Amino acid sequence: MSLAERTKIYEGSRIPQRVPTVLDVPPELLSSDDILQVNFGPNHPSTHGVLRLIVDLDGEQVVGLSAVIGYLHTGFEKNMEQKTWWKAITYPERIDYVGYQNNELVFVLAIEKLLALEIPEKATWMRMLLCELNRIHSHLVFLGTSALELGAISMFWYTFREREMVLDLSELVAGQRMHTRYFQAGGLAEDIPRGFYSECRKFVEWMPQALDDYLGLLDRNKIWLERTKGVGLLSADDAIALGQSGPVLRASGVDWDLRRDDPYLSYDKVHFHVPVYHGGDVYDRYRVRMDEMAESVRIIEQCLDKLERMDGKPWIADDRKVVLPPREELHTSMESLIHHFKIVTEGYRVPEGEVYVAIESPRGESGCYVVSDGGPKPWRVHFRAPSFVALEATATCMRDTLVADMIAVVGSLDAVMGDSDR
Amino acid sequence: MLRDWLPFLIYGLLALAIPASMIYASFALATRPARRTRARLVPFESGVSQGQMKPQRFTVSFYLTAMLFIVFDIEIVFLYPLAVQLHALGWFGFVEFLFFIVILLVAYVYIWRKGALDW
Amino acid sequence: MNVRDIPGFLDVREEHGETTVVVERERVRDAARHLRDELGFNFLADVVATDYLNWGTKGVSGYIGTASGRDLNLPMTQGLQAQPRPKPWRFSVSYHLLALREGAPRLRLQTLLEDGDPVPSVVSVWPTADWHEREQFDLMGIRFDGHPNLVRILLEDDWEGHPLRKDYPIGGEPVRFSDAE
Amino acid sequence: MTRLRDHGLQSERLLWPTKGPSKFEEEMGVEELEQALGLTTLEKAVRWAQTKSMWPDTFGLACCAIEMMAIVSARYDIARFGMEAFRASPRQADLLIVSGRVSHKMAKPLRQIYDQMVEPKWVIAMGACASSGGMFNNYAILQGVDRIVPVDIYVPFCPPRPEALMEGILRLHEAHLAGVPPAYERRQVAT
What we know:
Mean pLDDT of chain B: 86
Structural class of chain D: alpha/beta
Distance between the termini of chain D: 31 Å
Strand content of chain B: under 5%
Number of strands of chain D: 4
Strand content of chain D: 5-15%
Shape of chain B: flat
Largest interface: A-C, 60 and 55 residues
Radius of gyration of chain B: 25 Å
Helix content of chain D: 40-55%
Largest sheet of chain B: none
Oligomer: heterotetramer
Number of helices of chain D: 9
Structural class of chain B: mainly alpha
Number of helices of chain B: 3
Number of strands of chain B: 0
Largest sheet of chain D: 4 strands, parallel
Order of helices and strands of chain D: HHHHEHEHEHEHH
Order of helices and strands of chain B: HHH
Low-confidence stretches of chain D: none
Helix content of chain B: over 70%
C-alpha cells in the first residue's frame, strides 16, 4: 500500500504563511477600498449549520477568508466527565449528528480497549453493518444539501427518500430514527429483531439503482461539472499537512482509509475497494463519496451474509462486572443481583489508563481520547473531530475562487458544526 | 371609436385595481409592532450585524456586466414586434433584421475577445 | 523505530498497545520536528490537554441532595477500586501522531506541565495544530508560545475562565425533581 | 366558563378532555382571552390566510435541523400546509423554528434574528435542547430558548420525529385560527 503517486494538482503549498487557517488579503489590494467585507454568518442557508465565514471580496473574487466557529459549542467533554460510563455513551451521538452511529462506536471501542473486553462476533458484525448504513445516511445528507446549494434542488428530494429507508432500518433495529444508542460496552443493547435481515436485503437491492439515478442526474450535468471541476483545489501534501482525512484526503490522491490500513471491528475480513481520485477539487470529493456509498452497500451485503448464519449467538459479552445480567438470572442467583445493583447504581469501573481510538467516520478519522482514573466516571474525554479539521482547510481551498464557488467548496468539505464545535 | 377602446380601458382599470388593493390590504390588515425595536432598522447580516452598513464602493466590473446585459436584453425586446408581424413583412423584414443581428453579433465577438465576459 | 534519541526524551510507556513518549516541555517543537522528519509521523491527528487536579483523591459515596434539588452534576459516588498512579504535575498535553504508511504506526507525544507554563507551538511543524492549540488554550488555558493567532476559538471572546479545568464549575442549573422543593 | 375548546381549538379537547385551564388561559387569564377570541369575520379571514402560508426561517442549529429538513422531503411534505418555502432572511419569515441546542455564543444572533422578523411572528422550540437545555446542563448551553425569545410551541423528543414537529406546527395553526394571540403579545415581551 504505498501512497498513490501524487499527481501535481498545483506547485508548492497554498497554505497561507502567516496563519495556516486565515487567508489574508494580498498587500496590494489592502490599500484599495474596493474590498467588501461580508459575513457569511451563523444564520446562512449555505453554511451547513452555524459556521460563520468572514469573507473579504474584491468584486466577485474571494481574496480574504477566516472561519469563525463556536456558535454550537455544547461542552460535551465537560458533561461527559460528570456522567458514569454507561450514561456517557448517550452523548457522543449528538456530536456528529449526521454520522451518529460512528461516533457512538468510537467511544464504545475506547471503553472496551480500556477494559480489554472481548465482544462476541455477532455484535462486531452488526456494529459494522449499522456503521456502514450510517455512512450511507451521512453521504446522502451531504449529497442532498450540497446539490441543493448548487441549484440541483431535485437531488434533495431523491436523497432524502433513500435516507428515510435507512432511518426505517435503524428504527426497526433500535426503535429510534437517529441517535439510536444501540451500542453498549460489550456488544449491543438488544438482540437483532426478526425481520431485519429481509428488510435490509430489500434496501441493499434497491440502493445501487438509486445511486445510478443520482449519477444520471448529476454526473453529466453541464452546470454541475462547470461549478465543481477545478474548484477548491487541495494538493496531497497540503491535505496531509492540514490533517485532512477521509473523503477530502482520498480526493487529493492519498490512498488512505483507516478501515483498510488500520482495521478495527472486522473490516479486515470484508472485501471492499477504497476509491481514490487525484483531482483534489469539489468534483472529486463528490465522486469519492458516491463510490463510497456503493462500497458501503457491498460491505452491508457481506455483513448480512455473515449475520444470517449467527442466529441464537450471544450479542453481548457476559462479563458480569460490566454487562447487565439477563433478567431471569436475577431471580435465581445472588451474585447477578449484586452485579446488577452495582452496575445500575454506581456504574461499572474502568481500569485506570489513557487510550486513543480512531475509526473511519464518514467525514474522516474520528478519534476518541479517554483518560480513566479507575472510577465509575471518565476523567477526560476528547473527540478528534474531522469537521473541525476540515474547516481549517477552507482558507487553503479558497484561493482564487468566486463567491459562488466558495459555497461549493464549503459544501464539499462536508463539515458538521456539532462535530466541529463539540 | 370609444367602443373599440373599451377593452383597453377595462384592462387598464384592472391593472390599476389589483396592485392598489394589495397595497391597501397590506396597510389595513397588517399587524403593527408595538414599538419599533432598534434591531428592526439594522440590516440583516446573518445575525451578526453591528449597525448600519457603511456605504462601500462596488468594483466597476459589476457596472460593466450590467451594461452588457442591458445591450443584449434590449436586443430581444426589438425582436417581439418583428415576431408578431413577420408574416406580413415577409422576406424583407427577415433580411432587414439579419443586419441588426449581425451588428450585435460583431459587438458580442468583440467583447468576448476582449475578455469582458469572464470575471 | 528507536524512540530514545528523540530530543528532550524523558520516558516511554507501552499500554493497551499504544506507545506514549514523554518529552521535556521546552523541547516539544524539536521533538515534533524530529518525529516528522526522521520517523515519518507526517499526520498530527489531535492535540489534547488533560487536567489532573485532585486526581485520585477518594470521592464520597452516594448522591448529595441540596435544598434546591439534587444536582446530578455534583461528584457522585467516586469510590475508587484501586488508587491510581500519582500524577505530581497538573496538566499533560498529548499530541496523537500517525504515520501514513504501511501498518499505520501511531504514537502519543506527551509533555507534563504546571498551570501557566507555556508550551512551544508546533504550528510550524504541522499546520493543522493551529486550531487544535487554540481550542486547548480556549478550554484548558494552556499557553502555546509562537502560535500565530492564539485567541479563543469556541467560546465568546469576553469569556473568563477555562471551562474544562477541574476547578471550573460545570454551570447549568440544579434540576428540581418535585414541586415540593 | 367557556373554554378554549368551545372556540374550535381542537387539539386541547382531543388530548385531555378533563384537563385544567390550558397554557393560553393561564398566561392571559380567561377574560382577555375571551375578547381576543371574539373575532370579526375579516379578522378570521386574515388569520386563515396567515395560517395557510406561514413561512419558516432556515434556522438549523443541530440534530433537530436534520429532522427539520426531513419534513420538507417527499414523505412528510410540509408543502401540504403551505410551508415549504424556507426563507433565509428573517424579513420574509413568519415562523422561527429553533431546531437544536442554543449555545450562549449563538444567543445574541438568535435574539437579533427574532427582532428582525416582522409581525405576526411565532417561535417553535423544537427538541428537548431548545425547550429546556436538554441533556446539556452545563456552562455552554442556554437552558431553554424561552430565556431570550417568547416561545409559542414546545416540541419534545431528541430529535423530534418529523411527525412530532408537524403536529406542533398544526397546533400552532389551530391556536392562531382560533384567535390566540402570538407569544410576544401574550407575555408582553419586548417585541
